[in-house]
Design goal:
single chain, mainly beta, outer membrane lipoprotein receptor (LolB), chain A, 2 domains, twelve-stranded antiparallel β-sheet, 6 helices, about 40% strand, disordered C terminus
Length: about 500
């Protein structure tokens, strides 16, 4: 393999995006079940002690015009605690719509002892026409979960549902191309603006399984609720809309029961929380990446990273974001913004595609980021990253037998109670799969939020000749090497 690859043509990327667009918007079955792995936003004000732990969910959903419901069972992977919630929407002719939720006193095995509620909410069970009604926009097609054994990854189509009232971003939904099933929901807003029960409350919801289902024992709960078999809880208020709402409920539960590692592995095979002896990953001194990045825009940015660490002022990183323009929400693949990271400053040259010359034309230098330099190769360890979980051999995460994936969280306090969580997914071989930055407070304080690696090469043949920067770099200070978490992604918007 000859690396690094040339920076792609903007015109070709634009043409490919249009050619890949499906003929129709995605739809959901009226009834379905799913298993999900939920990654939280940062949240230092959470009443939960372990607010950064991953959560596993079992979901059952059923939609009809008059009565829709969803049941969500949650398993805290570190605390080993189990919770069970039931959401009910009722819309009958001549009556005001009712949106309620109930707390189920139950066990992981399925026994329901009590139904507590109802509690008011604004959450709505998604209809089959959810993406039509919400006017989803086409993003692009690219693979997720690329690994060494399966570099092609899992082919997916990506759609974005605009956040109501926003002109530059939304919630992203990924669908597998092989079976058309939903595969991931990615939320930039911590307020759950689409009002999707639980899945819309977390930063990232990866669906480990999804299946259409016409009936469920959970539907029997409707009969119990209609018959009044509900324990009232006067004065309790929690709409259960956001991650913080869920954390508040789970920190002071009406009902909670312990769950086991086996309960969690039944839902997500191969999952182990806090694996003993796990070591956080690092970058090689010469790393090459091709990826797709989601930011405050309605298209994903093609991303190319060259990283060369020498331990001196000659250390550099250049990240090209094709699709990132100068106006948030207005990017096209005919625009490109580079982040040229030196030891103590990041320059930002801006380019536009010149169709006549069939090349990128440099236009101007955007404001440099003073004091923001490239990361050290061991930036995850320096920022106290922790392997929160390991998944082995699970094909829903792109893994074949014998392959492992470590899910690492690194927290970055920003002051004023604000904490960011950097989620970093690395294979056992040291190759990266995913990087993201999530804030519960000020969730849009940065405009580049998630990157999916399609190619991650350690010890790549990168030399000084592979870097370019038409903006005059600041004079480097070899004694003042600064490190930004995830350097290639972090960017103040």
């Amino acid at each position: 393999m000859s690396l690094p690859n040339p920076i792609p043509s903007g015109a070709q990327l634009e043409s490919n995006r249009q050619a890949r667009k499906p003929a129709n918007l995605p739809t959901l079955p009226p009834s379905w079940t799913a298993a999900a792995l939920l990654s939280p936003f940062g949240d230092s004000i959470s009443p939960m002690k372990n607010y950064s732990q991953l959560t596993v969910a079992e979901i059952e959903s059923s939609f009809s015009v008059e009565e829709s419901w969803a049941r969500v069972k949650l398993y805290l992977t570190h605390d080993r605690a189990f919770f069970d919630f039931f959401f009910l929407n009722t819309t009958r002719s001549g009556e005001e719509p009712r949106y309620e939720w109930y707390w189920l006193d139950s066990t992981p095995g399925g026994q329901v002892n009590r139904i507590l509620g109802p509690f008011k909410t604004t959450l709505q069970v998604p209809s089959p026409r959810f993406f039509v009604d919400k006017q989803a926009q086409w993003g692009n097609a690219y693979p997720l979960m690329c690994t060494d054994a399966n570099p092609a990854g899992i082919a997916c189509n990506h759609w974005v549902v605009p956040t109501p009232g926003a002109s530059d971003h939304g919630s992203w939904f990924s669908f597998r191309q092989d079976d058309g099933n939903p595969f991931r929901m990615f939320n930039m807003d911590s307020t759950n603006p689409l009002m999707v029960p639980v899945l819309g409350s977390y930063f990232i919801a990866n669906l480990a399984s999804f299946a259409s289902q016409g009936s469920s024992k959970s539907a029997e709960l409707l009969t119990a609720i209609r018959n009044g078999s509900v324990t009232s809880v006067p004065g309790y208020w929690n709409p259960l809309v956001t991650q913080e709402d869920l954390h508040r409920a789970m920190a002071a539960p009406f009902s909670s029961i312990s769950c086991t590692a086996q309960d969690i592995q039944r839902i997500i095979p191969g999952f182990v929380a806090l694996p003993p002896g796990a070591v956080v990953p690092n970058w090689a001194d010469r790393t090459y990446i091709e990826a797709w990045t989601l930011g405050t825009d309605f298209i994903p940015y093609f991303t190319r990273v060259c990283y060369r660490w020498t331990g001196s002022a000659e250390s550099k990183q250049q990240t090209a974001f094709i699709g990132l323009g100068t106006t948030s929400g207005g990017g096209t693949y005919l625009q490109r913004t580079d982040s040229c990271l030196n030891t103590n400053e990041t320059d930002q040259p801006y380019f536009e595609w010149d169709s006549g010359a069939n090349s990128w034309s440099f236009k101007k230098c955007l404001d440099a980021l003073q004091g923001v330099g490239l990361p050290y190769p061991d930036w995850v360890a320096r920022d106290h990253g922790v392997v929160m979980a390991r998944i082995a051999g699970n094909p829903s995460f792109g893994l074949r037998h014998g392959e492992t994936l470590d899910l690492v969280a690194a927290e970055l306090p920003r002051g004023g109670g604000e904490v960011a969580i950097f989620w970093v997914w690395f294979l056992g071989t040291g190759a990266g799969m995913l990087f993201s930055e999530g804030n519960f407070m000020n969730s849009l304080s940065h405009n580049l939020q998630l990157i999916d690696y399609s190619l991650f090469v350690r010890d790549a043949p990168i030399s000084a000749a592979d870097f370019s920067n038409p903006c005059a770099p600041a004079t480097p200070n070899a004694r003042e090497m600064t490190s930004t978490v995830g350097g290639h992604l972090t960017r103040v918007g």
